[in-house]
TrEMBL record, chain A:
Listed InterPro entries: ER_ret_rcpt (IPR000133)
Family the entry assigns: Belongs to the ERD2 family.
GO terms under biological process: protein retention in ER lumen; protein transport; vesicle-mediated transport
Protein name: ER lumen protein-retaining receptor
Species in which this protein is naturally found: Medicago truncatula (Barrel medic)
Pfam families: ER_lumen_recept
Keywords: Endoplasmic reticulum, ER-Golgi transport, Membrane, Protein transport, Receptor, Signal, Transmembrane, Transmembrane helix, Transport
PROSITE patterns in UniProt: ER_LUMEN_RECEPTOR_1 (PS00951), ER_LUMEN_RECEPTOR_2 (PS00952)
GO molecular function: ER retention sequence binding
Signal peptide: 1-25
Membrane topology: Multi-pass membrane protein
Length: 215, 10
């Protein structure tokens, strides 16, 4: 474990806590894409299939359980909780996210570390996570003004994978046989997708103005 | 050291 990876995991956890706070405090999921939340639930379920078979550390197991439980809880809130469900804007959240699932799985069938069930689902989860934010970014562009908590949620979610890239560079330089191309390339693509969001987020922070993504 | 489990990251 290095400082970049720890910072990445904590930033990821923070993004989830900010989203939970937004939904709990405002009893609303306006500006939040249910489809992105569903994709993240699939990402965690597919990536942590080895949760009970492959013990790495207490930290690792604890975080996996937190990520799976929180992503399922958020999807449940948006789909089932009467007050939150009412604020979900399905006319804005129209990204065909099942195409992302299909494309990621297809790619994982061809590009993986080993042709085993766990490895294919792991690669699938890596590719899917890279594009999982797309429905959310599209929704932010459509919904015009973005409330602070949702903006912070997306910012921390994008920043965590950027910190992971620093972690991979650090590990590549310090560990003799460290190579993880699938996660690295996918992580760079994932972080790049946030580039324009980061730009507008920085502008809004600098001008102390409302975050607004151009349509 | 043994080949570190390649899935030690979240």
């Amino acid at each position: 474990m290095n400082i970049f990876r720890l910072a990445g995991d904590m930033t990821h956890l923070l993004s989830i806590l900010v989203l939970l706070l937004k939904i709990y405090a405002t009893k609303s999921c306006s500006g939040v894409s249910r489809k992105t939340q569903e994709l993240y639930a699939i990402v965690f379920l597919a990536r942590y299939l080895d949760l009970f078979t492959d013990f790495i550390s207490v930290y690792n197991t604890f975080m996996k359980i937190v990520f799976i439980a929180s992503s399922l809880a958020i999807v449940w809130c948006i789909r089932v909780h009467p007050m939150v469900k009412r604020s979900y804007d399905k006319d804005l959240d129209t990204f065909r996210h099942y195409l992302l699932v299909a494309a990621s799985f297809l790619l994982a069938l061809f590009l993986h570390e080993k042709f085993t069930f766990l490895e294919i689902f792991w690669a699938f989860s890596i590719y899917l996570e890279a594009v999982a934010i797309l429905p959310q970014l599209v929704l932010l562009q459509r919904s015009g003004n973005v409330d602070n908590l949702t903006g912070q949620y997306v910012f921390f979610l994008g920043a965590y994978r950027g910190l992971y890239i620093l972690n991979w560079i650090y590990r590549y330089l310090t560990e003799p046989r460290f190579t993880r191309w699938i996660a690295c390339v996918s992580g760079v693509v994932q972080t790049a997708l946030y580039a324009d969001f980061f730009y507008y987020y920085f502008i809004s922070w600098k001008n102390n103005s409302k975050l607004k993504l151009p349509a | 050291c043994s080949q570190e489990s390649s899935k030690d990251e979240l």
